[in-house]
Amino acid sequence: MAKKILLVAFFSIGVMAFAAKGTAFAVSAEENYKFYCAQCHGMDGKGEGANAKPKVVGIDLPEMSVTPRNHTSPEDMNKLTDIDIENAISGGGASVSKSTIMPPFGKTLTEAEIKDLTAYLRKLCKCKGK
Ligand code: HEC
Fold first, then answer.
1. 43 alpha carbon – ligand 1 mean position (Å)
2. Residue 101 and residue 111: Cα distance in Å, rounded?
3. Which range is most confident: 9-18, 24-33, 82-91?
4. How many of the other CB atoms lie within 10 Å of CB of 110?
5. Portion of the chain with pLDDT greater than 90, in percent
6. Which protein residues touch ligand 1 with a CB less than 6 Å away?
7. What is the pLDDT of residues 15-34, one digit of tens each?
8. What's the pLDDT score for residue 22?
9. Buried b (16+ CB within 10 A) or exposed e, 65-99
10. Atom of ligand 1 nearest to the CA of 105
11. Which atom of ligand 1 is nearest to the CA of 79?
12. Which of 30, 36, 67, 69 to probe ligand 1 with, by most ligand atoms within 8 A of CB?
């Protein structure tokens, strides 16, 4: 009998651990931005991430030929519709005739995450787009 209770207890701990793992995967747009985008666009979105002006332990790497978009600039970001932004994130720079340095994220992020990121970029630029 005691053995049975122990078994049930172990089983529920397993289920709880699994459920907790599930929620840990639901990250915010801000976290996604800081993880996937900040190395180029900067932690605050100004286009000044480490990769934009790389200095790796004393070695000067060549700067990117194209500066990553400043996501806090309303002038720049107002030119883009939400669909433009979603396409740029999903298909990368090449898909919107921009720099191929901008990688595609369509296979890394879900459609919902890309929509959330687009909303996050709208918060950074405090603009609505055309
Ligand atoms: C490896 C560097 C790099 C990473 C990582 C990166 N970008 Fe970019 N991104 C760029 C560059 C460079 C441009 C500028 C393209 C141009 O103006 O030709 C750009 C442009 C953009 C644009 C503007 C496209 C346009 O039409 O003007 C958006 C929106 C954008 N990035 C969003 C993101 C988001 C969101 C992420 C993270 C999911 C991200 N980027 C990650 C380098 C990067």
1. 13
2. 21
3. 82-91
4. 10
5. 58
6. 36-37, 39-41, 51, 64, 66, 68-69, 80, 84-85, 88-89, 93, 96, 98-99, 101-103, 105, 117
7. 555 555 444 567 899 999 99
8. 47
9. eeebbbbbbeeebeebeeebbbbbbbebbeebeee
10. 38
11. 27
12. 69
Report the pLDDT averaged over residues 90-105: 94
Q: How far apart, in whole angstroms, are the C-alpha atoms of residue 54 and residue 24?
A: 32
Ligand 1 centroid – CA 24 distance (Å): 26
What own/partner pairs with CB < 8 Å and gap ≥ 24 does 59-64 have? 64/40, 64/99, 64/101
Q: How far is the CA of 119 from the centre of ligand 1 (A)?
A: 15
Amino acid sitting at position 72: T
Cβ count near 36 (within 10 Å) = 17
The residue type at 88: A
